[in-house]
Amino acid sequence: MWGTFPLKRFLHLFHSLSNVLDIVEVLYAARTISVSRGSSVTLPCNASYNLNRCGLVHVVWLQNNVELVDPDRYLTTVSEIHKGGNTRHRQVLTEILKVGANDTGAFQCKAECGSGESAKGHTININVQGKALIKIQSNQQVSFLYLYM
Fold first, then answer.
1. What fold, for 23-148?
2. Half-sphere exposure of residue 143, counting CA atoms within 13 Å on the CB side?
3. Which residue in 18, 71, 90, 100 has its CB near the most CB atoms, within 10 A?
4. pLDDT tens digit string along 32-64?
């Protein structure tokens, strides 16, 4: 028997559950980006979190669950604003400086709280297009092979 459930109690329960879910969230649109080899592309990530419940937050872009942190390949800028109450909003922009064949694939932004909670955003797929030059040397002969992707 279901019986009746007082609306006030339901709203309190719903509010309690929604507070658990809003410790940290990552927001940006899922999409596919086609980019020319050798050019750059910027990945934008927006994370909102409750400072009291999350503590310190680490927001980073991942490719195959590996953080994009090599300063020779990536430039990451971070900005953060206070949204009122305990809510903070962090924007992380990671630029892949010179796109190569290894950058084809799926990228995802992850925000991890000091308290242990984490959230991931949608997948952004990057398709690298353009020609690759392969230099082949053998017996004092040099050949060039162009691959079109």
1. Immunoglobulin-like (2.60.40)
2. 5
3. 90
4. 999 999 999 999 999 999 999 999 999 999 999
